[in-house]
Write a structure and sequence with these properties.
With 278 residues, this protein is an all-alpha fold. The chain contains 13 helices and no strands. It folds into two domains: 1-6 and 26-173, no CATH class; 175-278. The chain has helices spanning 2-13, 25-44, 48-61, 72-84, 87-93, 98-119, 126-139, 149-159, 164-172, 179-185, 191-195, 199-226, 230-273. It starts with a helix and ends in a 5-residue tail after the last helix.
Length: 278
């Protein structure tokens, strides 16, 4: 047990930095898009208060950097939590740390874009707020918002904006993946990744889940037939159970990442095909 505690502590100390790498291409691209939007907002906003609110929302929407949910620290904590049933390890293992900010940024953007539309419904920036909101809802997690992506794009179409309304009609038909669905499908580890287009990733997780399940069940089945468990079979079965727990936990968290990145790829492909889109 002491060795396991020491290993978990070592992994915690060696965790990757929460700072965004200076060479992160995704972050730099997001900064460039934010700067371009800021110029438009300064031209069209009716007041400094409106500009500030829109740019607050845009900064959440553009909070993008290369997302990696799991490192050695996460696996060590999840294994330690499964082995020891120790409360602090379980609490640490249940979250994604800095990755949570990346996953939930779109929820913050949606809340602020909705606030902008409520306060400035007839603003010249309202069509752009709806445009951003439609994409943000697709990549968000929270279910408490008053509407969804399709409803937002439909409202934008009704606004008859010369640039964004035709784009909204096409965007509404673009494919996307729900993080909630990806998580729900992860009741079978790997199925959420396959849903989000990462077939190899999903198959590997399915194979690992099947392997650990067999490792857990086979010794117990043999013991039931022979009428003798023994510490060796118990140890093997316990190892299978611990491995299965880790596979389940990492599968559903990684499924969220896979769905988010699918949606961002679809948005990027849409923008590449429509250079006039803001």
């Amino acid at each position: 047990m002491f060795r396991l505690l020491a290993a978990a502590g070592l992994f915690c100390a060696c965790a990757s930095s929460p700072l965004i790498r200076s060479d992160d291409a995704e972050f730099h691209a997001a900064q460039e898009r934010l700067a371009a939007t800021e110029e438009r907002v300064q031209r069209q906003a009716a007041s400094p208060a409106e500009a500030a609110l829109f740019l607050q929302a845009e900064s959440f929407y553009r909070y993008r950097w290369t997302l990696q949910l799991h490192d050695g620290r996460a696996y060590a904590l999840q294994t330690a939590a499964a082995v020891l049933d120790f409360g602090p390890f379980s609490a640490l293992a249940s979250g994604n740390g800095i990755g949570d900010l990346r996953l939930q940024a779109y929820d913050g953007a949606a809340q602020l874009f909705e606030a902008h539309l409520a306060r400035f419904p007839q603003s010249a920036l309202a069509p752009l707020a709806l445009w951003r909101l439609g994409w943000a809802y697709r990549a968000g997690q929270t279910e408490a918002f008053p509407r969804g992506s399709d409803a937002v794009f439909t409202e934008l179409i009704r606004r008859d904006d010369p640039l964004l309304s035709p784009l909204a009609a096409e965007a509404r038909a673009a494919p996307w993946k729900s993080q909630d669905t990806a998580v729900a499908l992860s009741v079978l580890p790997g199925l959420g990744q396959i849903y989000a287009g990462e077939t190899l990733n999903g198959v590997v997780r399915m194979v690992l889940a099947a392997g650990f399940t067999a490792l857990m069940v086979a010794p117990l089945a043999i013991a039931a037939r022979q009428g003798s468990l023994g510490w060796q079979r118990l140890a093997v079965s316990t190892a299978g159970f611990i491995g299965l727990q880790v596979v389940y936990t990492t599968a559903y968290q990684d499924a969220q990442r896979a769905a988010l990145e699918y949606d961002e790829r679809e948005e990027a492909a849409f923008l590449a095909a429509h250079p006039s889109a803001p």
